[in-house]
Amino acid sequence: MATVRGFPHDVIGMRRALHRFPECGFLEYRTAACVAERLAELGYDLRIGPEVMRADAMLAPPTAAAIAQAQQAALDMGAGPEWIARMPEGQTAVVADMRRGAGPVTALRFDIDALPVAEAESDAHRPFREGFASIRPGRMHACGHDGHTAIGLAVAAALASPESRWRGTLRLIFQPAEEGGRGALPLVEAGVVDDVDLFFAGHLGCLLPSGQVATAANGFLWAVKQDVIFRGAPAHAAMAPQLGRNALLAAAAAALGLHAMPRDGDGVTHVNVGTVRAGTARNVIADHAVIEMEYRGETEEILASLAKRVDDIVQGAARMQDVAVETIPCGRSIGIAPDREAMRRVAEAAGRIGVGSVVEEWPIGGGDDATYFMRRVRERGGHAGYCLIGADLSAGHHAGTFDFDEAALPVAVRLFTALVEGA
Amino acid sequence: MATVRGFPHDVIGMRRALHRFPECGFLEYRTAACVAERLAELGYDLRIGPEVMRADAMLAPPTAAAIAQAQQAALDMGAGPEWIARMPEGQTAVVADMRRGAGPVTALRFDIDALPVAEAESDAHRPFREGFASIRPGRMHACGHDGHTAIGLAVAAALASPESRWRGTLRLIFQPAEEGGRGALPLVEAGVVDDVDLFFAGHLGCLLPSGQVATAANGFLWAVKQDVIFRGAPAHAAMAPQLGRNALLAAAAAALGLHAMPRDGDGVTHVNVGTVRAGTARNVIADHAVIEMEYRGETEEILASLAKRVDDIVQGAARMQDVAVETIPCGRSIGIAPDREAMRRVAEAAGRIGVGSVVEEWPIGGGDDATYFMRRVRERGGHAGYCLIGADLSAGHHAGTFDFDEAALPVAVRLFTALVEGA
Amino acid sequence: MATVRGFPHDVIGMRRALHRFPECGFLEYRTAACVAERLAELGYDLRIGPEVMRADAMLAPPTAAAIAQAQQAALDMGAGPEWIARMPEGQTAVVADMRRGAGPVTALRFDIDALPVAEAESDAHRPFREGFASIRPGRMHACGHDGHTAIGLAVAAALASPESRWRGTLRLIFQPAEEGGRGALPLVEAGVVDDVDLFFAGHLGCLLPSGQVATAANGFLWAVKQDVIFRGAPAHAAMAPQLGRNALLAAAAAALGLHAMPRDGDGVTHVNVGTVRAGTARNVIADHAVIEMEYRGETEEILASLAKRVDDIVQGAARMQDVAVETIPCGRSIGIAPDREAMRRVAEAAGRIGVGSVVEEWPIGGGDDATYFMRRVRERGGHAGYCLIGADLSAGHHAGTFDFDEAALPVAVRLFTALVEGA
Amino acid sequence: MATVRGFPHDVIGMRRALHRFPECGFLEYRTAACVAERLAELGYDLRIGPEVMRADAMLAPPTAAAIAQAQQAALDMGAGPEWIARMPEGQTAVVADMRRGAGPVTALRFDIDALPVAEAESDAHRPFREGFASIRPGRMHACGHDGHTAIGLAVAAALASPESRWRGTLRLIFQPAEEGGRGALPLVEAGVVDDVDLFFAGHLGCLLPSGQVATAANGFLWAVKQDVIFRGAPAHAAMAPQLGRNALLAAAAAALGLHAMPRDGDGVTHVNVGTVRAGTARNVIADHAVIEMEYRGETEEILASLAKRVDDIVQGAARMQDVAVETIPCGRSIGIAPDREAMRRVAEAAGRIGVGSVVEEWPIGGGDDATYFMRRVRERGGHAGYCLIGADLSAGHHAGTFDFDEAALPVAVRLFTALVEGA
């Protein structure tokens, strides 16, 4: 069996090794291979790729070229070809089961993807200063999922130990593409949590200070991720600009209009046009523009109200320039609150491992498509929670200078371990 | 000597062969190799690359990676490695001299570059229907420079023939990077036309119908090409958007503001934001945006007035988002009118070859950095002209459906030949 | 003594009489005259105009012409000239005291101003259908302050009755210009609440249903109201548009930019550009533009962060058009929470009068400059509350179809009466 | 007969008297009364108001209130009530005929309206310094029509003199509402020039220096003037902004979009959003916005192309905010060139009166709805010209500091007199 070159065993070491090689959504080949190999070594039963992900539920999957490139890069880093072969079309999930007699099915979810953010190259930024910054330009673990993955592997090791006392079935879900809200649904649709009694996910940081644990994240927002494509007509920018239909100006007006959508007196909203790519040449009227955007709302009703406005804005901006417009769905997530039973268990586990400060609820601010798992588990009679593990941050999530207090990692490992042992 | 594979000899065949393999500014390696090889075969003395281009006058040269890729692509198409080797850093000009005793130095300029435009894939588009459409996605000869290059080679052959009667020195200048106004100045600065007595350039099409020749293009505009880079700060789009400084919205406001600059009661103006590239991820406040833009004016004064406004707009748009902004000069061209003596000679030559309809002046609408040659020649006491060869068009210059009536090609060949023979 | 013609005595009648004649901030001459006359009849000691308002604390006072016009309109409606004479420069506040021996000083605040909103002329709109709609085009009691004023007068009558049992000093404050946050501060600065032990204000509606009372409004936002004036240069729009400096486009870019300010992950924000007035003629480049705007934030820190962005946006928009810009402060309000003692008293009073449903806190959504009174009272050792009296609405506050369930009026009268009697 | 108080007889005096009392389109009551009274004194046969203007061809007539106010202001200035009575609904045209036997019908057109521009109050501005600046705030003769009117009256006096030698019929047309292109068509539709053999109009200034005359203005643009009304829904800007539909932002986006319309490679275009009026209150989502705009093109085809774009932009901007939009036509003018015979006569007359410098054609830059007269005269077999009388300017037309060299006035008087005497 091929070996992922030099992959460490301690949680901080694993986090740093993962940090160096960030992979974006549905392209986490080297990460998934590391995970699978380690879990197999620990004796877990593995299901990988298409076995646990429904391809038809994958929104905005990568191109074949991007997949081939990511696979090659993973192989070049020493990923085992047998793992890569099992994830043919961006299905980079790994689900690991371990059974210890009768008892509840407890599932833990860990997300593994990185972001297309350029990591800061400055001595003030610890990953750079200490030599574990991203080696892949323009990609970065800027949301702590490197930590989440490392925590999951450390928890897997702890619970696989004979000393660890628990009964029933343990299921570890290493999910791709949490960013953008694309990765959970294909797993849910494949039935991965249909028999789960207890489900937990969690997140580092989120402005909760080091040393604290929150029994529940609240404020999960409903969200839509989509691309908008404007198609116009090119023309010589000086000889006959009047013959062009300007997709770039349509995108610019749409971007400004989208950010100018009204706040909602009934609850939180967010909107972001994250990228614009428009035009081909300086002296040609731009005939093509693509924007990547998202919008979020505190309730399903607010999301629906935003959806109407977003549609009006992109249609209107297109009409202003007489260009065609198309909207491509790329991700969704739903808002759901952790349930009381799950919160009780987190509080109990945090107490058991000696966490000094346990807060009841803490606003997560953003979203996490773990909510799809949570909804499915609850619909089928189980309990579902989402906790936060406090970690001081060097900068906000998604910033190029993001980093977190690694002292939170062993706390998280103990917390998840205790959750299973107490189930 | 390596041979450019299957390069034809007739002007229409040459045009189509060039059309299939479009190369953008300072990357015309295969085109230049074809040109050089043919001219060498015809007995011209060649100067290539750094011999005729001052690198320090090349605005916005391509990256080393782009150059390497273009060189390899040219080699793959059969370009002679000895030619490629002589054009190390994007200096893809070829200047060919032939001397027949004492007499004036007559220079003809032909531009060879293509555009980053996607060619139409439709049976209504002749190059596609007849199988000579671009084989390079996103690049296209959408302004007729394939025709210009073919004309230049055919003129070279005609004038090299012993039957052709002329005296003095003939200089053929195959210039890269006319689009964007970047290619002429490095040649001028290298002194390529310092000893020229008569200079001619020309253009196909420009809305002049097939069968006609214009003795002069007028309305050459002064132009500036520049990139504008906005640099802000990223942030999580939902957890803490207030921490971001949004470069994308700065670029959007700048694009709208630039296109909304006032017309000028004193003469023609044009402006185009041709491309925008902004942001990295959907759920991150965009911290980076680049726009490629140009602006043009009928006089140097109008250009200066626009320059002031452009600066105000990009500075103001940056201030609105509290982002930094930088402007990178990428090209310039100047306005100059063909002189009377040059016009007289074009009219005389057109009459000699039997052109039915000779118009005196015809608006070119855009610009051409041939004006830098024209100014230098005139400053040193020579005459400089710029004629138009009528060609019915299928669509406007720079459109993905651009094509021209190839019947114009032999007319142009005869006209330029006659200009030299009459000099 | 002159009599305000036909002003009724029942609370619904008073509300409707006030509704027909809406007066905007600092111009409530007829309203204040009605109030003063009635309170004088009831035996209150009155302080009016400059006696209770510091002119130098009045932001954005009306012009002398607007004041003269409002005074004349009030006189035409039968307002007593002796009252009008006491409010020379827009100081339209009336403060009424009644003393019954030793005891606490209890103050009630009622706001009296209307909005520049056009009232709906439709049979679906009860004030129109039943004949008490505004007779003043473009002005309307669209926020219920007509009800507040009527409640205040009915409370004044109830507490002036010999049967009403209370001790100490009662102070009724009829405040102008609550909209825009301009009216409270001049009263506070004049010391009107410096000796107050208990202070209460309240609001009808705010989405609280009829039959309910909220012991506290929460979510008072910090707010800034300001005008932004852009000054450019005019020019003939066709002969020489380039000579103009376009204040209208600066205002348009600023309006879009302001609405596009990011949400804040730390709390609620709001922004509104409520009006734009720009330019003078169709064929002249607009040399002048004025926008009336406001922004609000959940905390003082968020407000400060918005202030920085607002400044960047208006400065940047001005720079884009090379126009001058000036910001005129027009109002501020602060966020403060009702205190526990005040909430307890509202709950007790609501119980005493038999309100079926008492909720503890209810989001007010907007702001109310009653917060200035509340802060001053608390700074000097008193208690300050703000309650909501539920009233079903026909449309949102500030809409042209706004109306409220008048059954709430007697509830409010009993509640405020009970608050004083229980003090 | 009533007398217009103190109206002088010399051309400069008349110009200054008119300058002090500017009246905008269709409201020129005092101006028309002065004109009518003087022409009646001189013995001309007058037709006034509805006799020479078709009401149904008056675009965007003023409101009854504005007319009543203008009439009263004119009466207050001493205008004869008998004249005011003959112009009931804004029909402020005066057409005066004088007949001297058989011969051609020669018509001269003079425009009389002012602009809604605030006149500069600075000693650098001669009308202010010398005490003849506008006494009406916000209105100004900023295009020289005060001069045109004075010229017309002086020409009327000169040609009414027994010494003046001419035959046929002289028709003097004093036209209202030239600005905005509204005044000529109602006169043309009433048949005022149907029998005219020779028609002349003219303009002072237009960047032609003092002492020169241009035999023709060229570059008359086709133009459309229109208002665009956006209607949305109001809402409380903080409690429920999501319920609003924001007409102000629609207008802002439209204004930016309209100014950003592409230039046209086929000829001159212009666009201006001259005014925006939006919203009613700072804390209410603006439910109403009106923009006054115009666009112009060198040819009827360009105008049609712009019309399509304008419609797309206003419809698209409305869609972006989900507001209704309506376009109100407010004026049109057409492009037409003066004919050769008319030019010849201007050149001849200019020579006869000793003008030193006669240029053949001079760009007018803007438009003048005199073109409607010109087209009708030519359609019926006559000749029509438009000359320019050079006059140094202190600032561009329509600026608040506009003023012209009054030495041009007697030149213009002699030129028009000579045109009639030479007819």
TrEMBL record, chains A, B, C, D:
Its cofactor is Mn(2+). It comes from the Bacteria. Keywords: Hydrolase, Manganese, Metal-binding. Residues 228-316 form the Peptidase M20 dimerisation domain. The keyword tRNA processing does not apply. The keyword Manganese applies. GO terms for molecular function: dipeptidase activity; metal ion binding; para-aminobenzoyl-glutamate hydrolase activity. GO terms for cellular component: cytoplasm. PANTHER family: PEPTIDASE M20 (PTHR30575), PEPTIDASE M20 DIMERISATION DOMAIN-CONTAINING PROTEIN (PTHR30575:SF3). This is Amidohydrolase. It comes from Gluconacetobacter tumulicola. The lineage of its organism: Bacteria, Pseudomonadati, Pseudomonadota, Alphaproteobacteria, Acetobacterales.
